[in-house]
Amino acid sequence: PYTILRPGGRNDRKSTGTASMAEDPQAFSFMSRRDVALMTVAAIGDPATINKTYNLYDPSRRTLWKQFND
To answer: How many degrees, rounded to 5, is the angle at CA 64 between CA 70 and CA 35?
Structure first.
């Protein structure tokens, strides 16, 4: 069994509490290291995540697309 979590860019900013695990392979955003840790712990305890791959995504943070097009 496996669960793969792919966080986007990480930073030391404050946790937003809005990050989520997206099955969309194109989902990408920067997020706090704390949010990555919280989602990792949540995935460990959730049997629904077994044998799946997720991109960690925070819709309230800058996406890569916005970063280059602002």
So the answer is: 120
User: How confident is the model over 37-59, as a mean pLDDT?
Assistant: 91
Q: In whole angstroms, what is the distance from residue 11 CA to residue 48 CA?
A: 28
Cα separation of 53 and 2, whole Å?
Answer: 8
Give the span between the Cα atoms of 46 and 28, in whole angstroms. Answer: 22
- As beta bridge partners, residue 7 has 56
The per-residue pLDDT for range 21-41, each reduced to its tens digit, is 988 887 888 888 898 999 999
* pLDDT beyond 70 at 20: yes
Dist CA 44 CA 65 (whole Å): 30
pTM of the model: 0.75
Enter the tokens of residue 3. 């669960």
Tokens (6 digits) for 47: 């049997």
